[in-house]
Specification:
The complex is a heterotrimer of chains A (311), B (428) and C (188). Chain A is an alpha/beta fold and 311 residues long. Chain A has 12 helices and 9 strands. In chain A, the strands form 2 sheets. Chain A has a 5-stranded parallel sheet. Chain B has 428 residues and is α/β, with parallel strands linked by helices. In chain B, strands 3-2-1-4-15-18-19-20 form an 8-stranded mixed sheet. In chain B, strands 8-9-12-13-14 form a 5-stranded parallel sheet. A 3-stranded parallel sheet of chain B has the order 5-6-7. Chain B is globular, with a radius of gyration of 20 Å. With 188 residues, chain C is of the alpha/beta class. Helix content of chain C is 28%, strand content 25%. Chain C has 4 helices and 8 strands; from the N terminus they run βαβαββαβββαβ. In chain C, the strands form 2 sheets. Chain C has a 5-stranded parallel sheet, with helices on both faces. In chain C, strands 1-8-7 form a 3-stranded antiparallel sheet. Classes of the chains: A alpha/beta (311), B alpha/beta (428), C alpha/beta (188). Chains A and B meet through α4 of A and α5 of B. The structure holds zinc ion. The site of zinc ion has 5 residues of chain B, from loops.
């Protein structure tokens, strides 16, 4: 039985489409007088965040509350977790409190997989280390479909620190499941070993792929990477891989620009582009709530989950 | 007590014979020997091997007695057929003085399950900065001959050169944990397709191979002995083959787990599969088996690394690397090398007993099965498959990667200087 | 919906309403609606997916044919308000489409194909309450098969069909099933 969402690879094409279709209906709630559904009344969702991420936590919190679930925010700071309690102890404590689902954000890759082995409820990966962030990929696909009418056949270019990006990993998996045509663009130092085995094309040259891209997804590049010699300087990175106004003008009329946030303006993306009409950055945030409502409904809204994988 | 061990086949060859053990030595080998005043032990046609010798064991005492003690670790060793183990230096305090190595050596003597040969640290506190008092450890009651900073690499080329040179004075050997630290910052598993998919920082093969290449050249340059710990990659096997072809005095070991497990096991994120050096690919496993078969790799050493539950029941990144291996080593070697015909039992005796004893300059171990030799023996039941159960092992820790696996052979009995430490697969 | 044709135990479905009957019944319901709502001037038709939504559109078509009046029509999915969610796997959601005029102050007529336990209508009433505040709510169903579990009754009934609990009622509509009709089948 499947009960978790740990990786975008847990989702079949049917699962993924079900999430996107469900999210379309969930999005309608935003337009209503009463922005609340009774669906998860009596269910408890725990946000277990070992990393600060107000954006993602708030999105999950709002999604759960829109569905009338009780929400507990359990952040690693100020709790016994920082006093050396293990993830397992924390998990068992939360389960004893009646958590039906645990939404986990963790700095270590795979922590949600470990957690899923210790609890009976559903586990939703809200970002683990440099591994995956499946709900981000779902909201990105949802945003593409709303803007461009489809995902299948879209040419999606993902640019930046693929090596350290959980967003990139989940997007490559989900987009290939949904039939999009993904190209990864990065300096060679920021591409993982063995990337040629991924269901994606690889290019070192952003200008060469921009004109035929329907979607350009810019990944955040942390300045710390410079210290580890992944690239020489912010200026050189921006010049070779940043989406500036000149590059954005090479895109075709309908192409959109995405960013999972938080972005480093002037580094990977120019402010004019981030705030321009092509940009979906604000929509992505709004769509995040609808998609997470869909995921929570499909995992918790019935006797057993309708999507997802087992640990 | 003298023993008459009946019905055993030395090196698994020929017809069964009886072996009489008197005063800690092999007194008689023949057929139809009379009981005399000896206690008789029925060998049941088992393969008779010299007691196994492990060049690479972590016993955790002093410092982490919650994970293992010399008592529990050496009992596990005896159950695995070992009569001597080398105890690595990364204890707390570090075994970098005569005082600590003598303490470990004495604890081994008191436990009595097998001999413990302490390994001395190469550098003070394993910090890789200042050479420890290697000569004092060599001259101590523990008679240290193997020196290693295992757990970390002696990465400073100058320091490594001096250590290799210095131990020539007492016929010591530097056992190098080959890991270029700058290439393995934050490393969690083998760098490759699997690490990229799992988002775990990679530990590239080149980080091992670069150090091995350097150390072989250094050992040749100063004319000293080098031992390479836990070789894990196909490239390392090639480099060692090349060094040996030059006639340089380089030896190498492989662990049982690197002979059988691969990096895709990390996909479970179960830290029981986290180990350093990491599990590699199927191609590496094949090269290691070939290297062990053709003698490029001299011996099997367990790198037995017990860990307390809380250090393994954690996120992959937070868990400590290491696997237990003493009780399963011979079974894995039988599965991967003997049954497929890559090694005979006589060659197993070389690779798990006589060669490691020679590398460690360990007297009284790894000797031939002959009259007058020390009665350090191991009886192997060839047709006694058993299933590994982490909960019932002698080691204090549970971190075996082989739990639930069926191993094709079992240790029937172990004798240490004529005294049984294990009989019928249980502590004697 | 479809029975295995070779199954000897299966009795063939019994036709209760033919295609022509369905058309007649919908016509009559449209007339009743106009009558009871005094010209349907503030009516909003909300069909419960999937066949209720289709019936709502047909009713709207007939009203327009008879009176030239365009009745705002939409559909209302009740899935997220159901009281039996925890008995099954989460099911896919159906469309909800509220006419741009909204429902505040309107006379909302809920439309469904079969009225049975009344639980779907209960869910629809809850869903409606979250969408706005209608002046009043009425219920139109093509078939009322009885066995109510809640105090709910229909204002417009195409046909009352007394059934046993072992029977199932199938409403067939061209848009979904290729033909119109109502059939009664004994479940095994
Ligand atoms: Zn080591």
């Amino acid at each position: 039985m499947s009960r978790h969402l740990l990786s975008a690879a847990d989702l079949t094409r049917e699962d993924a489409l079900l999430v996107l279709d469900t999210a379309e209906e969930m999005a309608l709630v935003e337009e209503r007088t009463v922005k609340k559904l009774p669906t998860l009344r009596g269910r408890t969702v725990v946000n277990l965040f070992f990393e600060d991420s107000t954006r993602t936590r708030t999105s999950f919190e709002l999604a759960a509350k829109r569905l009338s679930a009780d929400v507990i925010n359990f952040s690693a700071k100020g709790s016994s977790v920082s006093k050396g309690e293990t993830l397992k102890d924390t998990a068992l404590t939360l389960e004893a409190m009646g958590a039906d689902a645990i939404v986990i954000r963790h700095a270590w890759s795979g922590a949600p997989v470990n957690l899923a082995r210790w609890v009976h409820g559903s586990v939703v990966n809200a970002g683990d280390g440099t591994h995956e962030h499946p709900t981000q990929a779902l909201l990105d696909a949802f945003t593409m479909r709303r803007r461009l009418g489809r995902v299948e056949g879209l040419k999606v270019t993902i640019v930046g620190d693929v090596l350290h990006s959980r967003v990139a990993r989940s997007n490559v998996l989900l987009l290939s499941t949904l039939g999009a045509d993904v190209t990864l663009v990065a300096p060679p130092t920021l591409l993982p070993v063995g990337v040629e085995s991924w269901p994606a094309q690889v290019s070192y040259d952003l200008d060469a792929v921009l004109a035929k891209s329907d979607v350009v997804m810019m990944l955040r590049v942390q300045r710390e990477r410079m210290g580890a010699a992944y690239f020489p300087s912010q200026r050189e990175y921006a010049r070779r891989y940043g989406l500036d106004v000149r590059r954005a003008s090479a895109l075709h009329d309908d192409a959109v620009v995405m960013h999972p946030g938080p972005m480093v303006r002037g580094m990977e993306i120019a402010p004019e582009v981030a705030d321009g009409v092509r940009s979906t950055i604000v929509e992505q945030v709004r769509n995040g709530v609808s998609v997470r409502m869909a995921v929570l409904y499909l995992l918790l809204g019935g006797a057993s989950p309708a999507i997802g994988g087992d640990a | 007590m003298n023993y008459l061990v009946r019905d055993v086949r030395p090196y698994g060859e020929g017809e069964p014979v009886d072996v009489r053990l008197v005063d800690g030595a092999i007194a008689e080998i023949g057929t139809g020997l009379s009981d005399g005043d000896s206690r008789v032990y029925a060998g049941g046609g088992a393969v008779l091997l010299p007691g196994l010798v492990d060049l690479h064991t972590h016993l955790r005492e002093p410092g982490r007695e919650d994970a293992e003690t010399v008592e529990t670790g050496t009992l596990a060793a005896a159950l695995g057929g070992f009569t001597a183990v080398h105890a690595m230096a990364n204890t707390d305090p570090v075994a970098d003085t005569a005082g600590v190595v003598e303490q470990v050596w004495r604890l081994g003597q008191e436990a009595g399950h097998c001999d413990v040969a302490p390994v001395g640290a190469v550098t003070v506190g394993l910090r890789g900065e200042q050479m420890a008092e290697l000569g004092t450890m060599a001259d101590s009651a523990a008679r240290v001959r193997v020196f290693s900073d295992d757990g970390t690499c002696v990465s400073d080329a100058s320091l490594m050169r001096r250590a290799l040179e210095y131990v020539k004075a007492f016929d010591g050997v530097i056992a190098q944990h080959a890991q270029e630290p700058r290439l393995t910052v934050g490393a969690q598993m083998n760098e490759g397709v699997v690490s990229s998919r799992l988002g775990l920082t990679g530990w590239p093969a080149v980080a091992e191979e670069a150090v091995i290449a350097r150390d072989c050249l250094l050992a040749a340059h100063v004319g000293s002995r080098l031992h390479v710990c836990h070789v894990s990659t196909a490239g390392s096997v090639e480099l060692i083959r090349w060094a040996k072809s030059k006639g340089w005095d380089v030896t190498a070991e492989v662990t049982p787990h690197h002979l059988v497990l691969t990096d895709d096991l990390a996909a479970s994120y179960d830290p029981v599969f986290k180990v350093n050096p990491p599990l590699r690919t199927a191609a590496d496993v094949a090269a290691l088996r070939a290297g062990l078969a053709d003698g490029t790799i001299d011996c099997v050493a367990t790198d037995n690394a017990p860990h307390a539950l809380e250090d393994k029941e954690a996120e992959w990144g937070a868990a400590l690397p290491g696997m237990t291996g003493l009780e399963t080593a011979l079974g894995i070697v039988a599965e991967t090398m003997v049954l497929p015909g890559r090694l005979t039992w006589r060659q197993v005796a070389e690779r798990l007993s006589s060669t490691p004893a020679r590398i460690g300059r360990l007297e009284g171990h790894g000797r031939p099965l002959a009259v007058g030799e020390p009665a350090n023996l191991c009886l192997v039941d060839e047709a006694a498959p058993w299933t590994v159960d982490a909960a019932t092992m002698a080691t204090r820790s549970r971190n075996t990667p082989f739990a639930g696996r069926s191993l094709p052979v079992g240790v029937r009995a172990t004798f240490l200087r004529g005294t049984p430490t294990v009989l019928d697969g249980a502590p004697a | 919906m479809t029975a295995a044709p070779d199954d000897p135990v299966q009795t063939p479905p019994k036709t209760v309403l033919s295609g022509a009957d369905v058309a007649r019944v919908v016509d009559r319901m449209a007339h009743e609606l106009l009558e009871k709502t005094a010209g349907a001037s503030d009516v909003v038709l909300l069909g419960i997916p999937t066949r209720g939504a289709t019936l709502a559109r047909r009713l709207a078509d007939r009203v327009r044919a008879f009176e030239g009046l365009v009745v705002p029509t939409g559909c209302l999915d009740t899935t997220l308000y159901r009281d039996d969610l925890r008995l099954k796997r989460p099911r896919p959601l159906e469309q909800t489409q509220i006419p741009p005029e909204g429902v505040d102050g309107a006379l909302v007529v809920l439309v469904d194909d079969v009225l049975f336990s009344g639980r779907t209508v209960r869910a629809a009433l809850d869903a409606l309450a979250d969408l706005g505040r209608p002046r009043a709510v009425q219920l139109a169903v093509l078939v009322d098969r009885g066995h109510r579990e809640l105090p709910i009754r229909a204002d417009y009934v195409g046909k009352n069909i007394p059934t046993s609990l072992r029977e199932s009622v199938h409403v067939l509509l061209i848009e979904h099933d290729g033909r119109d009709g109502v059939e009664l089948e004994v479940r095994r």
